[in-house]
TrEMBL record:
One of its GO terms (molecular function) is 4 iron, 4 sulfur cluster binding. GO terms for biological process: organic phosphonate catabolic process. Keywords: Lyase. Pfam families: PhnJ. It comes from the Bacteria. This is Carbon-phosphorus lyase.
């Protein structure tokens, strides 16, 4: 039996481009929350699917991913998201903030200061 074949980081390239355009608009217009059309994901809605899609859009093959949920690396959600990207993108993952190039977090920022080579995907439960 063959394992399923996924696009790199699950999302199709057209969706990734759409999300990247939204990210550029968000950076260009400070304080502006940019909506994007969320795609169906293989995880329950409300478990960070928006943040997962942003991470999928920016993640590269050479990146190392850290996932934080509610301030912890070992919650069910953090582990599920980390395993999702290990499977669909075959990227390295870590629980050490300084080793990560992409950090996806829900509700809390890392206590360790980030450097210029790190990207933080900060997801909130409900945008204001």
């Amino acid at each position: 039996m063959n394992a399923p074949v996924y696009n790199f980081a699950y999302l199709d390239e057209q969706t990734k481009r759409m999300i990247r355009r939204a990210i550029l608009k968000a950076i260009a217009i400070p304080g502006y929350q940019v909506p994007f059309a969320s795609r169906e994901m293989p995880m329950p809605y409300g478990w960070g699917t928006g943040g997962v899609q942003v991470t999928a859009a920016i993640l590269g093959r050479e990146d190392t991913l850290k996932v934080i949920d509610q301030g912890s690396d070992d919650t069910t959600n953090a582990i599920s998201i980390r395993k999702f990207f290990e499977k669909t993108a075959n990227v390295k993952t870590t629980t050490v903030t300084s080793d990560a190039t992409v950090i996806q977090t829900r509700h809390r920022i890392p206590e360790t200061a980030l450097n210029d080579n790190q990207v933080l995907v900060y997801q909130v439960p409900i945008p204001e």
